[in-house]
Amino acid sequence: MRPTSTLSSLLISIFLFITSIAAHNVLLAPYGKQCFYETLNKNDELAISFQVGSRNPHNSEQYTVDFYITTPQGQTILKKKDMDHGDETVKAPSAGKYSYCFSNERTGRVDLDVSFNIHGVIYVDINDPKSDSLEYAVQRLSQLTEDVKAEQGYLVIRERTHRNTAESTNSRVKWWSVFQIGVVAVNSIFQIYYLRRFFEVQSVV
């Protein structure tokens, strides 16, 4: 095989791999769900990390979703309820098209945003002569690089969600403190006024 042909096939393989692990973002409708599909070979590992939040940057409420993965035969191999974030990994028991779903079917929450990354490990037979090839080594390096990028993106989303929660909590504490100061000031003025009236000497003509 010519070097140009080998290089072209290598670049195409890397491009296809990169697009397959790109980050995703989906808005869940009230009482709705969103499903996605991945074609896996037997013993492949599918890893999904996700974070649930709101598209409103000032909303500090912690939203949750139900998450589950289904085999090509329709069997649910993983089901999690009321998750605000997760990092789940499953090994494919057989080859076929697997589905993973984010569900908001039990609640009517609106503005519910799910950001998630898809990555995993492709099973390699140690007896396969391709496992020692340069093309496989480059694909493996590309996979590890994209895994790091995906993890960084996931951490950025979690940091943004937690920062919104912290800022909202700080704002509530600030206004509650202002309210308490106001109550103390009003109470002090009332006490001063009451004591002055109590000790005031009234002259009788």
Write up this protein.
The protein is α+β, with helices and mostly antiparallel strands and 205 residues long. It has one domain: Sandwich (Jelly Rolls). The protein has two helices and eight strands; from the N terminus they run H-E-E-E-E-E-E-E-E-H. The strands form two sheets. The chain has a four-stranded antiparallel β-sheet, with helices on one face. A four-stranded antiparallel β-sheet has the order 2-7-4-5, with no helix packed on it. A hairpin with a 5-residue loop joins strand 4 and strand 5. Helix 1 packs parallel to helix 2. The protein is elongated, with a radius of gyration of 29 Å. The N and C termini lie far apart (123 Å). The N terminus is likely disordered. One of its GO terms (cellular component) is endomembrane system. It is a single-pass membrane protein; Single-pass type I membrane protein. It comes from Candida maltosa (strain Xu316) (Yeast). This is Endosomal P24B protein. It is found in: Endomembrane system; Membrane.
Q: From the 3D coordinates, which CATH architecture would you assign?
A: Sandwich
CATH class: Mainly Beta
Q: What is the H/E order?
A: HEEEEEEEEH
The major beta sheet can be summarized as: 4 strands, antiparallel
Radius of gyration: 29 Å
Task: Give the CA-CA distance, first to last residue.
Answer: 123 Å
Membrane topology: Single-pass membrane protein; Single-pass type I membrane protein
Transmembrane segments: 175-195
Protein name: Endosomal P24B protein
Keywords: Membrane, Signal, Transmembrane, Transmembrane helix
